[in-house]
Predict the structure.
Amino acid sequence: MKSDDLFARAVKCIPGGVNSPVRAFKSVGGTPVFIDRASGSRLWSVDGTEYIDYCSSWGPCILGNAHPDVLKAAEMAAHKGLTFGACTEGEVELAEFICDCIPSIDLIRLVTSGTEAVMTALRLARAFTGRDKIIKFDGCYHGHCDSMLVAAGSGLLTGGISSSKGVQQSIASDVFIAPYNDIRSVKNILDQHGSSIAAIIVEPAAGNMGLVLPDNNFLESLRDLADRHKCLLICDEVITGFRFGPSAYSTLYNIEPDIITLGKIIGGGLPVAAIGGKSAIMEQLAPLGPVYQAGTLSGNPVAVAAGLTTLQLLRRLDPYSRIEKLCSDLASQINSFCKTNNYPVFTNQKGSLFTIYFGLKSEPHNLDDVRQCDTSLFTKFFRKILEKGIYFPPSQFETAFVSAAHTEADIDRTVSVFCRAITELFTE
């Protein structure tokens, strides 16, 4: 098996054999699948196995894998030069397009990763407010900058650790943790420490403890509390930006954050992320202001060409209602099947995102709910569907994605494979 051979080589030169921890299949067992190529809704491994893809490179490939127009745009840009370390027209066009789509963004700075975007957003918030402390939510993941690895989700949950070694206690002590959807906890923190809080950072729809949606008025209440205590509201939309419509989740649901972080979809499969917000805040960034941020490959011409083309296609084609229907059909059929058979499995879904929670019979609202999952059942489920040609995020605590390239036939086949696998789990 080529994947086995490659992994054996990888562990000799890469920590754990992977360049991002969740790829290691640590929580689901077995050797990671090494991918050779992708197209549309499909992946092909180096072993020659074809998969229906629900990982979508963890979110960027909303149009499907290797969309021909996106590839063409990247290729044309690459022929002019891969990188210049200088200004280009493409980065201006991408910035203008995003500002036009998201009214709460006056100015935007392009970077290369979601982690970098969040790190800069937090630095901006502290500089603008003159305060040091941050409120984040248990189970929300905002990249691997030090202060955001306190009670984080995603890969940290998958690895069975709640934080990371190497984070200084002095940094961790500047972060207050509240349960997601618990506005009373946020209010209590602000009542006691409001004068020292620079910002509240939140995933408007959490995607890193599986998919957990905001309760009614949760985001609105965060906006009100931030205004009352004169701190900033940061919406981390690395996953949700342009995922539910041709704008930010916050825009679609009438929330106006002070700062937004974006990533994944805005790069179309290449590394682009961004920080955007109101002029008074963003003008704190160098060279206008005293907050320093820089990046050699920020606004890379090939990456911004892929990102701009992706966003233009999303606006022109408007595939959102069709993708949502496909994803909703998948989730509702799985839920109906499990309810009929009294299997403790619940599929949470919104738009093109879904998570199958094993051990739950209803929608989770926070990390405590998610922690009730039976991860051993998910592991068995994952192995079964992988053998049947379904490539799924290898963790109970990740979100799966339906793309514009998926078809009704893909969904029908997936539902059949899922239902059979679930039946086997509870009847073996």
